[in-house]
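Re: the 229-residue chain
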Amino acid sequence: MLVAGLLGRALSLPSLYLASAFLTGLVLVTTVGICWSRTPSGQRPPDDSTLGPANWVTLSRGTLVCIAAAFIPFSHYAAQHAWIIAWISLIALIMDGVDGATARRTQSASAFGARFDMELDAALMLVLCALLITQGKVGPWVLTIGLMRYLFVIAGGLIPGLRAPLPESRLRKTVCVWQLVTLMVCLLPWVSQGWAAGLLTIALTLLVYSFGRDSIWLLAYRDAKETSR
Protein backbone atom coordinates (compact mmCIF):
# COMPACT_ATOMS: atom_id res chain seq x y z
CA MET A 1 0.00 0.00 0.00
CA LEU A 2 2.90 2.30 -0.78
CA VAL A 3 0.70 4.28 -3.18
CA ALA A 4 -1.91 4.81 -0.46
CA GLY A 5 0.79 6.00 1.91
CA LEU A 6 2.15 8.50 -0.60
CA LEU A 7 -1.36 9.69 -1.42
CA GLY A 8 -2.21 10.02 2.25
CA ARG A 9 0.86 12.13 2.88
CA ALA A 10 0.28 14.31 -0.19
CA LEU A 11 -3.35 14.97 0.74
CA SER A 12 -2.75 15.16 4.51
CA LEU A 13 -5.17 12.32 5.14
CA PRO A 14 -5.55 10.94 8.67
CA SER A 15 -3.70 7.82 9.73
CA LEU A 16 -7.03 6.03 9.93
CA TYR A 17 -7.28 6.36 6.15
CA LEU A 18 -4.03 4.44 5.80
CA ALA A 19 -5.40 1.77 8.12
CA SER A 20 -8.54 1.59 5.99
CA ALA A 21 -6.46 1.27 2.82
CA PHE A 22 -4.35 -1.45 4.42
CA LEU A 23 -7.42 -3.44 5.45
CA THR A 24 -9.05 -3.20 2.02
CA GLY A 25 -5.77 -4.22 0.42
CA LEU A 26 -5.49 -7.16 2.79
CA VAL A 27 -9.00 -8.27 1.86
CA LEU A 28 -8.10 -8.05 -1.84
CA VAL A 29 -4.89 -10.05 -1.54
CA THR A 30 -6.48 -12.66 0.72
CA THR A 31 -9.47 -13.09 -1.58
CA VAL A 32 -7.29 -13.43 -4.67
CA GLY A 33 -5.06 -15.93 -2.88
CA ILE A 34 -7.98 -18.09 -1.80
CA CYS A 35 -9.59 -18.01 -5.24
CA TRP A 36 -6.25 -18.82 -6.90
CA SER A 37 -5.67 -21.81 -4.65
CA ARG A 38 -9.13 -23.16 -5.46
CA THR A 39 -8.89 -22.63 -9.22
CA PRO A 40 -8.14 -25.77 -11.27
CA SER A 41 -4.90 -25.60 -13.24
CA GLY A 42 -6.82 -25.73 -16.51
CA GLN A 43 -8.46 -22.40 -15.71
CA ARG A 44 -5.21 -20.66 -14.80
CA PRO A 45 -2.70 -19.01 -17.16
CA PRO A 46 -0.46 -21.42 -19.13
CA ASP A 47 2.25 -21.14 -16.48
CA ASP A 48 -0.07 -21.96 -13.62
CA SER A 49 2.62 -21.50 -10.99
CA THR A 50 2.28 -17.71 -11.21
CA LEU A 51 -0.52 -15.22 -11.77
CA GLY A 52 0.88 -14.24 -15.14
CA PRO A 53 1.50 -10.72 -16.45
CA ALA A 54 -2.14 -9.92 -17.22
CA ASN A 55 -3.35 -10.87 -13.75
CA TRP A 56 -0.59 -8.79 -12.18
CA VAL A 57 -1.95 -5.80 -14.11
CA THR A 58 -5.42 -6.64 -12.81
CA LEU A 59 -4.09 -6.94 -9.28
CA SER A 60 -2.44 -3.53 -9.66
CA ARG A 61 -5.80 -2.19 -10.76
CA GLY A 62 -7.24 -3.75 -7.64
CA THR A 63 -4.93 -1.66 -5.47
CA LEU A 64 -6.47 1.46 -7.03
CA VAL A 65 -9.93 0.17 -6.17
CA CYS A 66 -8.74 -0.37 -2.59
CA ILE A 67 -7.40 3.19 -2.42
CA ALA A 68 -10.80 4.51 -3.52
CA ALA A 69 -12.65 2.16 -1.16
CA ALA A 70 -10.59 3.38 1.78
CA PHE A 71 -12.31 6.78 1.46
CA ILE A 72 -15.76 5.33 2.19
CA PRO A 73 -15.61 5.80 6.00
CA PHE A 74 -14.34 9.37 5.56
CA SER A 75 -17.09 11.27 3.76
CA HIS A 76 -15.51 14.68 4.45
CA TYR A 77 -12.22 13.72 2.83
CA ALA A 78 -14.00 11.87 0.03
CA ALA A 79 -15.96 15.01 -0.85
CA GLN A 80 -12.87 17.18 -0.52
CA HIS A 81 -10.84 14.94 -2.84
CA ALA A 82 -13.60 13.80 -5.20
CA TRP A 83 -11.50 14.75 -8.21
CA ILE A 84 -8.67 12.53 -6.99
CA ILE A 85 -11.01 9.59 -6.47
CA ALA A 86 -12.50 10.10 -9.92
CA TRP A 87 -9.03 10.15 -11.50
CA ILE A 88 -8.00 7.02 -9.59
CA SER A 89 -11.16 5.29 -10.80
CA LEU A 90 -10.54 6.44 -14.37
CA ILE A 91 -7.01 5.01 -14.30
CA ALA A 92 -8.44 1.74 -12.98
CA LEU A 93 -10.94 1.73 -15.85
CA ILE A 94 -8.21 2.38 -18.44
CA MET A 95 -6.15 -0.44 -16.95
CA ASP A 96 -9.15 -2.69 -17.53
CA GLY A 97 -8.25 -2.55 -21.21
CA VAL A 98 -4.54 -2.93 -20.51
CA ASP A 99 -4.84 -6.27 -18.73
CA GLY A 100 -6.88 -7.73 -21.58
CA ALA A 101 -4.36 -6.54 -24.15
CA THR A 102 -1.54 -7.91 -22.01
CA ALA A 103 -3.26 -11.29 -21.79
CA ARG A 104 -3.58 -11.48 -25.57
CA ARG A 105 -0.05 -10.24 -26.24
CA THR A 106 1.57 -12.62 -23.77
CA GLN A 107 -0.84 -15.48 -24.49
CA SER A 108 -1.68 -15.65 -20.81
CA ALA A 109 -5.46 -15.35 -21.05
CA SER A 110 -7.33 -17.63 -18.68
CA ALA A 111 -10.74 -18.26 -17.15
CA PHE A 112 -9.33 -17.13 -13.81
CA GLY A 113 -8.16 -13.84 -15.32
CA ALA A 114 -11.49 -13.18 -17.00
CA ARG A 115 -13.36 -13.80 -13.75
CA PHE A 116 -10.87 -11.72 -11.75
CA ASP A 117 -11.31 -8.85 -14.17
CA MET A 118 -15.10 -9.05 -14.07
CA GLU A 119 -15.32 -9.21 -10.28
CA LEU A 120 -12.99 -6.24 -9.94
CA ASP A 121 -15.25 -4.20 -12.21
CA ALA A 122 -18.19 -5.13 -9.99
CA ALA A 123 -16.24 -4.18 -6.87
CA LEU A 124 -15.31 -0.79 -8.33
CA MET A 125 -18.96 -0.11 -9.14
CA LEU A 126 -19.98 -0.97 -5.59
CA VAL A 127 -17.25 1.26 -4.14
CA LEU A 128 -18.29 4.23 -6.28
CA CYS A 129 -21.95 3.71 -5.32
CA ALA A 130 -21.03 3.72 -1.64
CA LEU A 131 -18.97 6.90 -2.06
CA LEU A 132 -21.90 8.65 -3.74
CA ILE A 133 -24.13 7.75 -0.81
CA THR A 134 -21.64 8.98 1.78
CA GLN A 135 -21.40 12.28 -0.09
CA GLY A 136 -25.18 12.65 -0.07
CA LYS A 137 -25.39 12.80 -3.85
CA VAL A 138 -28.03 10.05 -4.08
CA GLY A 139 -29.93 7.69 -1.83
CA PRO A 140 -29.23 4.02 -1.09
CA TRP A 141 -31.12 3.01 -4.24
CA VAL A 142 -27.91 3.55 -6.21
CA LEU A 143 -26.52 0.41 -4.56
CA THR A 144 -28.72 -1.48 -7.01
CA ILE A 145 -26.08 -0.69 -9.62
CA GLY A 146 -23.25 -1.93 -7.44
CA LEU A 147 -25.10 -5.03 -6.27
CA MET A 148 -26.54 -6.10 -9.62
CA ARG A 149 -23.66 -8.48 -10.38
CA TYR A 150 -24.00 -10.14 -6.97
CA LEU A 151 -27.78 -10.43 -7.31
CA PHE A 152 -27.20 -12.17 -10.63
CA VAL A 153 -24.83 -14.63 -8.94
CA ILE A 154 -27.43 -15.32 -6.24
CA ALA A 155 -30.07 -15.85 -8.93
CA GLY A 156 -27.71 -18.33 -10.57
CA GLY A 157 -27.57 -20.26 -7.33
CA LEU A 158 -31.35 -20.55 -7.38
CA ILE A 159 -31.79 -21.06 -11.13
CA PRO A 160 -29.16 -23.41 -12.60
CA GLY A 161 -29.79 -22.14 -16.12
CA LEU A 162 -28.28 -18.77 -15.22
CA ARG A 163 -24.92 -20.35 -14.38
CA ALA A 164 -24.02 -21.18 -17.98
CA PRO A 165 -21.23 -19.13 -19.61
CA LEU A 166 -22.31 -16.18 -21.71
CA PRO A 167 -20.95 -15.42 -25.19
CA GLU A 168 -18.90 -12.28 -25.70
CA SER A 169 -21.07 -9.19 -25.99
CA ARG A 170 -20.05 -5.70 -27.03
CA LEU A 171 -23.28 -4.37 -25.55
CA ARG A 172 -22.47 -5.88 -22.15
CA LYS A 173 -19.01 -4.32 -22.14
CA THR A 174 -20.37 -0.96 -23.26
CA VAL A 175 -22.99 -0.92 -20.51
CA CYS A 176 -20.34 -1.81 -17.94
CA VAL A 177 -18.13 1.08 -19.03
CA TRP A 178 -21.18 3.37 -19.08
CA GLN A 179 -21.92 2.51 -15.45
CA LEU A 180 -18.38 3.23 -14.31
CA VAL A 181 -18.04 6.49 -16.23
CA THR A 182 -21.43 7.70 -14.98
CA LEU A 183 -20.53 6.88 -11.38
CA MET A 184 -17.21 8.71 -11.73
CA VAL A 185 -18.82 11.78 -13.26
CA CYS A 186 -21.46 11.92 -10.53
CA LEU A 187 -18.71 12.00 -7.91
CA LEU A 188 -17.48 15.34 -9.20
CA PRO A 189 -18.39 18.39 -7.09
CA TRP A 190 -20.06 20.31 -9.91
CA VAL A 191 -22.61 17.54 -10.56
CA SER A 192 -25.72 18.40 -8.56
CA GLN A 193 -27.93 15.90 -6.77
CA GLY A 194 -30.60 16.27 -9.44
CA TRP A 195 -28.22 15.63 -12.30
CA ALA A 196 -26.63 12.72 -10.45
CA ALA A 197 -30.02 11.12 -9.85
CA GLY A 198 -30.99 11.54 -13.50
CA LEU A 199 -27.73 10.20 -14.91
CA LEU A 200 -27.69 7.25 -12.54
CA THR A 201 -31.31 6.40 -13.33
CA ILE A 202 -30.38 6.15 -17.00
CA ALA A 203 -27.35 4.03 -16.11
CA LEU A 204 -29.44 1.71 -13.94
CA THR A 205 -32.03 1.32 -16.69
CA LEU A 206 -29.32 0.25 -19.14
CA LEU A 207 -27.87 -2.15 -16.58
CA VAL A 208 -31.23 -3.77 -15.90
CA TYR A 209 -31.74 -4.15 -19.64
CA SER A 210 -28.31 -5.75 -20.07
CA PHE A 211 -28.78 -8.24 -17.24
CA GLY A 212 -32.34 -8.94 -18.34
CA ARG A 213 -31.18 -9.60 -21.89
CA ASP A 214 -28.48 -11.99 -20.70
CA SER A 215 -30.90 -13.78 -18.37
CA ILE A 216 -33.44 -14.30 -21.14
CA TRP A 217 -30.70 -15.63 -23.44
CA LEU A 218 -29.45 -18.06 -20.79
CA LEU A 219 -32.91 -19.37 -20.00
CA ALA A 220 -33.73 -19.74 -23.70
CA TYR A 221 -30.43 -21.56 -24.22
CA ARG A 222 -31.27 -23.92 -21.35
CA ASP A 223 -34.72 -24.62 -22.78
CA ALA A 224 -33.24 -25.26 -26.23
CA LYS A 225 -30.76 -27.77 -24.78
CA GLU A 226 -33.49 -29.58 -22.88
CA THR A 227 -35.69 -29.72 -25.98
CA SER A 228 -32.88 -31.17 -28.11
CA ARG A 229 -32.32 -34.08 -25.73
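The mean pLDDT is 90.
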